[in-house]
Design goal:
The chain has about 375 residues and is of the alpha/beta class. The protein contains 10 helices and 15 strands. The chain has 2 domains: about 200 residues, Rossmann fold (3-Layer(aba) Sandwich); about 140 residues, Phosphofructokinase domain (Rossmann fold, 3-Layer(aba) Sandwich), CATH 3.40.50. Helices cover about 35% and strands about 20% of the residues. α1 packs parallel to α9. GO terms for molecular function: 6-phosphofructokinase activity.
């Protein structure tokens, strides 16, 4: 429920947190123009909240005044004008003690003090599950906050989709389309590893759109023999090549996720390497030549698709409207065809995984795609 007793807004801030996603700049543009229309000032915080929490790193200032001129032409640009971080959760801020060990401290109070000092009345927090959990915590401490759902992973609950996902899937689809030709020419297996730590939306959608022969998801631990059988079955039908799409968080039934670096204070674990493992295992099981292509951070780059731009622009404007209407502790969400508001508390600390009984998975099965089970 909007709070009619709130003091009027004069100045708001916007921050972009977590992995960057195409469309962040479009949100910044829309929020800036919508704020200016209401006579509000708007400032951008650099690199999540680092601009306020690590001022020593910003001799030119940790914030940026946003004006209509400053956000001109921004909607089509990838990345984020403000910078981002996935290493500085203010509630679990990494600090190195004298012995050199990293530990986490709660610096949320300092952040809220910085907001007060800068006369910031409200915050638009743009991010994924991590950033919106932080935003929910700040709202609980009394800050007026509206969240905006971002992530190429599409793993946020209570919104039809997040912006960034469509661009990432379109790019992955284009890459896999291209790999069919070279795999077929050389009668090879090509394994394509895509991002997606705990949710396999990118692998599932791009794999289906680009007619992969097998798709391996974090949600469904795989049996490599099932994939090898699919490849052998294709071989028997005269199809001497196969494309396997693997989410970075996929794991064998009797194994575990492939880690590049373990989690440490202030930093989540880094995954990667499962594509290479699957390629090697399939080469051994089938006797065929196999290659692995890792799309990785390429999936985060590029200009946002028209769908992501539109969603991001709508989200940025809707976040400002929500603040103007007295809402706080909410996230703007796509409830096709509208944008609505959902409680941040319903989103915080949760991940939307691929539902194994959902129609997309069933469609993949009906198309004859092997899911490794
Ligand atoms: N505004 C922020 N300032 C500092 N650190 C942040 C901020 N937002 C998020 N983080 C850190 O980054 C992590 C990931 O954030 P989030 O889930 O929003 O991003 P994401 O797009 O899902 O990307 P990923 O989780 O893969 O990094 C959080 O758990 C948190 O530790
Ligand atoms: O940029 P980093 O720290 O390597 O993070 C990579 C992670 O970020 C994401 O791109 C976005 O959440 C994940 O898919 C991926 O696991
Ligand atoms: Mg995340």
């Amino acid at each position: 429920m909007p709070d009619a007793t709130l003091s009027p807004i004069r100045r708001i801030a916007i921050s972009t947190g977590g992995g960057d996603a195409p469309g962040l700049n479009a949100v910044i543009r829309a929020a800036t123009l919508a704020a200016h229309r209401r006579g509000w000032e708007i400032i951008g915080i650099r690199d999540g909240y680092d601009g306020l929490l690590r001022p020593e790193n910003y001799p030119q200032g940790g914030t940026l005044t946003l004006t209509p001129e400053r956000v001109e032409g921004l909607a089509s640009m990838g990345g984020t004008l403000l910078g981002s971080t996935n290493k500085g959760n203010p509630f679990r801020f990494p600090v190195r003690d004298v012995g050199g060990t990293l530990r986490e401290v709660d610096r949320s109070k300092q952040l809220l003090d910085a907001f007060k000092r800068m006369r910031i009345d409200a915050l638009v927090a743009v991010g994924g599950d991590g950033s919106l959990t932080i935003a929910d915590g700040l709202a609980e401490q009394g800050l007026r906050v509206v969240g905006v759902p971002k992530t190429i992973d599409n793993d946020l609950d209570r919104t039809f989709t997040t912006f960034g996902f469509d661009t990432a899937v379109s790019f992955a689809t284009d890459c896999i389309d291209r790999l069919h030709a070279t795999a077929a020419s050389h009668h090879r297996i090509i394994v394509v590893e895509v991002m997606g730590r705990y949710a396999g939306w990118i692998a599932l959608h791009a794999g289906m759109a680009a007619s992969a022969h097998a798709i391996l998801l974090p949600e469904l631990p795989f049996d490599i023999d099932a994939v090898a059988e699919t490849i052998a079955g294709r071989e028997a039908m005269g199809e001497a090549y196969s494309i396997v799409v693997v989410a970075e968080g996929a794991m064998p039934r009797d194994g575990h996720r492939s880690l590049r670096a373990a989690a440490e204070a202030g930093h989540a674990e880094r995954l990667g390497g499962i594509g290479e493992q699957v390629a090697n295992a399939l080469a051994a099981a089938t006797g065929k030549d196999a290659r692995c292509v890792v799309l990785g951070h390429l999936l985060r780059g590029g200009s946002p698709s028209a769908f992501d731009r539109t969603a991001a622009l709508r989200f940025g404007a809707a976040a400002v409207r929500a603040l103007a209407d007295g809402h706080s502790g909410v996230m703007v969400a796509l409830a096709f065809p509208d944008v609505n508001l959902v409680p941040l508390a319903d989103v915080a600390g949760r991940i939307k995984c691929v539902r194994l009984d959902g129609d997309t998975i069933q469609t993949a099965r009906d198309l004859g795609i092997c899911l490794g089970d």
